[in-house]
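Lay summary. Proteins are chains of building blocks that fold into shapes, and those shapes determine what they do. In this project we predict the shape from the chain. Here is one chain we studied, written as its sequence of building blocks.
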Amino acid sequence: MPYYLDNTFLLDNPWITVVGCGGTGGFVAEGLCRLFQGREATIVLVDHDRVEPHNLLRQNFYPEDVGRFKSQALADRLASAYRRPVGYSVYAFREEDSRSDGGRYPGLPHYGNSLIIGCADNAAARRAMAESLPGDPRRWLIDAGNDTNWGQVLIGNVADRDFGDEQAFVDQTCYLLPAPTVQRPDLLTAVSTTPPDVDCAAALDLTDQDPTINQMMASLALQVVRRMAAGTCPFMGLYLDMEQGTVTPTYATPETVARVVRSGSELAIVA
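And here is the predicted shape, written in a compact code that computers can read:
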């Protein structure tokens, strides 16, 4: 029996936040503007890094963007090209927290209750995104991460392993899934393998990273968004191996969720 992820949160002016506007996030941001042409949708880009010359090889930037904040450069260009508002933040993702002892962080943004797409390559950002999940169908998180020529796209909305998986599936609809950091706890200890402050040629030599990996990852993330919006997304994860030329899905089923919640993720070896 196939199960499809709940899509009600994407039907009425969804709020979609892209965290990390570098390799994968820049292409995801532009793809969202294409996917949601003619539809009401709030798109916000979050990244506190600036464009550097070596970013031009694999990221969605141009020479005139060098020195600007990545989120701002993308937001300005996409807003002009697609004739729609595109918001941005030049601060690290951290949402105001109203759940802990009444404490609040004045001035920090609220990123809506629809969808967060994480394209960051560091544990701190992933932890912040997981902590922003309310643990119910109001907000989902997609995490796209990669290394040299492989990567994964993970989907979930509950950061607590003890969320009660018996409530996750009703008829053919999946309302709850373990967050990416529950599926893959190692994401909270992963570190970037790309040395900082190197030019394009050196980046290729040092990391041996395929120059098309980020566009491939963005395409997978956008496919998940498209199918979620249509109510036809059966995936809990997609695993890309460019060396083998394969995309391997993990389907959202009660059995898979129970295995993750019970024993921790051993779904794939992708970091």
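What the prediction tells us: The longest strand covers residues 140-146.
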